[in-house]
Amino acid sequence: MAIDPFWNNLFCRRERAGDDLYEVLSKVPIFQDLSRREFERIRGILHRRSFSVDEAIVKEGDMGVGMYVILSGEVAILQETDEGGMVELATFGEGDFFGDQVLLDESARTASAIARAQTRAVGFFRPDLLELIERNPHLGLKIVMRLSHMISVRLRHTNRLLKETRDQVRRAEAQRQAESQVADTEAEAAP
Amino acid sequence: MGSLVGQRLRLLLGIIAALAGLWFVYTVRGILAPFILAFILAYLLTPFVDRMEARGLKRTPSILLIFLFVFALLAAVVFFLGRTMTDEMVDLSGEFLREESRDRQITITNTDKKVHSIELSTVSRGGDLPFHILQPEEGQAILQPGGQAVVQLRFAPSVIAKIAGTLQVKWKGVIYPIPLLGNGETKQPEPTDEVAWGKFSFSSRGIDFGTAGPNIVSQISDKVAEYEPQLQSLLGREVDLSALIKTYGSQLIEVLLGRTTQLLSGVVSGLMLVVIVPFVAFFFLKEGHRLTRGVIELVPNSYFEMTLNVMHSINNSIGGYIRGQLLAVTVVALMSVTGLSIIGMNYALPVGVVAGLANMIPYLGPLIGIIMASAVALATLGGTSMVTQVVLLFLFIQIIDNVLVQPMVVAKSVDLHPLMVMVVVMFGSDLWGMVGMLVAVPVTGILKVSGQTIYEGLKGYRVT
C-alpha cells in the first residue's frame, strides 16, 4: 500500500480478525509480547478516539505526543513538499500504526495523518508511558525495549536504503564520468 | 468571518464559564477547605504510592499502607508534642485575646441602724500590688444606715502571672478579707453569692478577675508609651503611637483570629477534617488518573494531544511545588523551634511552627514570623534583649532558608510579584482569616505554575 518505502509497515502481521482491542493491539509489535494481564493494565492508559472523514489526526510540524493504532477506517499519511504541495506517503488501515517515534523523544511530527474514512483509533502517549515506567517499571521496560527494537530495525532498513541509494549515485556518477571521457576522446579525435 | 464570530463566541463562553467557576468556588468556600487539604495531601503522597506500586503491590493496598503510616506518624506527633502544642496554643491565643476590661466592683451595704466607717486596702500575694482601689479614692467610706458604698478595683499586673490577693475591709480594728483571684488562678470563688459580716453585707464573696489582664497589644503599646517622649523628640511632633497600636492592633487580632476560629469551629470541625480529608485524598490517589482521563476524553481531537501534554506537565509542576513547599516549611519550622528553645523563649513550639508556615508567604512571611516572635518575647518576658536574640535568630534562619533550602527544594521558582502577594493574602484573610492567609499563597503559586506550564506548552503548538 505504501508508496514511500520508509512508511512501509515492516512490523505489521497481515492477518486481521475481530474488532476486539486485544486482537488488534496484540499484533502491534510494541504490545506483542504482553500477557493478557499486562495488557489489561495497558488498556487503562490508552485513549480511544474517533475521527470523521478528512479530519486531521496529527498535523505535520505540531509537537508529537504519541502513537496511534487504527482500529477501523483508513488514514492517509501526507507530507508537505518544498513547493508547498502535498505528497501522499502511505495509506494505513485497520491494525496499522504510526507516530511511534515520538514516544521516545519530544519532537515535531514529520508528516500529517488525515482520516480518509470514518476512523477509530487508540492513542498511546508519552506522558502515559513515562507514568507507566514509574508505576510498573517491569512492564514499562518491556514496551520501551520493543520500541527500541523497532527503531533499530527501522534504522537498519534506512541504512540499507541509504547504502543502496549511495551505490546507485556512485554508479550513475561513474557512468557519467565514463560517458564524458568517451565524449572528450571523441572530441579530441575529431579533426 | 463566520469562524471569527465563532471564535469570539467561544472566548465569551469561556470567560462566562471561568466567572461562573469563580462564583461557584466563592459560594462553596465554606466546604472547600477539606478538599484543598485532600488535594495537597494526595499530591504529597503520590510518589510514595507510585513507588510501592512499582514494587509490585496493587494500588489500593499501597494507598492504605501509606495512609496507615501517615496516621501512625501523626498519632506519634500528637502523642509526643500535641499536648504541649495545644496547651501552648491555647495559652498563647489567650494572651492575644485577653479581655481588656480590668475593672471590677463590689457593693458594701450597711445593714445596721448606726453610721459606720470602714477602711479599705489590698494585699497581693505576688508582692507588686497589681490590685488598685479606684473608688473610694481615700480608701475610706462612711456608710449611713441602709446606705451603700461601691468599691471599684482595678487589676493591673505588669505581666500575666498567677497572682491572687485580698481586699481587706477594716472595721473597728477587725479585718475581713475578700479573696481576689488573678487571671491564672484555678480555684474559682462563687462571686455571685452575697455574704454577711458584722453589720455589713457584701454583694459577693470574692472577686474573680478571670481572663482579665493586659493582652499583648496593650502590653506592647504600654512599652511604646514608655519610649514615647524620646520618640516624639526624634520625630519632632506629637504622635500617640501607643494609642494607634492599641486600636489597630486589637482590630487586626480580632480579624485574624476571629475569622480563623469561625472557620475552624464552624464548617471544618475536627471530625470533618479527620474523616473527609483522608476519604477525598484516597479518592484522588486511587481514581485521579481516571478522573483526568475522563476530562481529557471530552477534549476535541484538534486540541487533544496538546491538552494531554499540558495536563501532564501541570501535574508534575504542582506536585513538585507542593512537595518543595512542605519540605521548606518543615525545615524552617524545625530550625525556628530549635533556635527559640535554645535561646529560652516561651511558647517556642507554636511560635516556631507558625513561623515555618508563614514562611510560605513570600516577602510578608518572614516579617510575620519576626514580628510575632518579637511580640511574644516582649509580652511574656518583657526583655528587649530577648527581642534582639529573636530577630538575630530569624535573620540567620532566613539566610539559611534563602541560600540553602529554597534553591534545593523549590524546583520551579514561583516568583510572585509583591503586590500580587499582598492582594491574595488580603483576599485569603478576608475569606478564612489566618488559615486563608497561609493557603492563599500556595494556591496562587499552583495557579501560576499551571499558567506558566500551559503557556510554555502552547508555544510548541502554534496556538498562541
Structural description of this entry:
The complex is a heterodimer of chains A (191) and B (464). Mean pLDDT of chain A is 84; it is low at 14-19. Chain A contains 4 helices and 8 strands, in the order ααββββββββαα. Chain A is elongated. Chain A is of the alpha+beta class. Chain B contains 11 helices and 10 strands. By secondary structure, chain B is an alpha+beta fold. Chain B is 65% helix and 12% strand. In chain B, helix 2 packs across helix 3. The interface between A and B is medium-sized, with 25 and 20 residues.
Element-by-element helix/strand order of chain A:
HHEEEEEEEEHH
- Give the biggest beta sheet of chain B: 5 strands, antiparallel
The outline of chain B comes out as elongated
Instruction: Estimate the mean pLDDT confidence of chain A.
Output: 84
Number of strands of chain B: 10
Number of helices of chain A: 4
In terms of per-residue confidence, which ranges of chain A show pLDDT below 50 for 5 or more consecutive residues? 14-19
Strands of chain A, total number: 8
Helix content, binned percent of chain A: 25-40%
Strand content of chain B: 5-15%
What is the share of helical residues of chain B? 55-70%
Radius of gyration of chain A: 22 Å
Order of helices and strands of chain B: HHHEEEEEEEEEEHHHHHHHH
Oligomer: heterodimer
- Termini Cα gap of chain A: 57 Å
Major sheet strand order of chain B: 3-5-1-9-8
- For the CA atoms, what is the radius of gyration of chain B? 30 Å
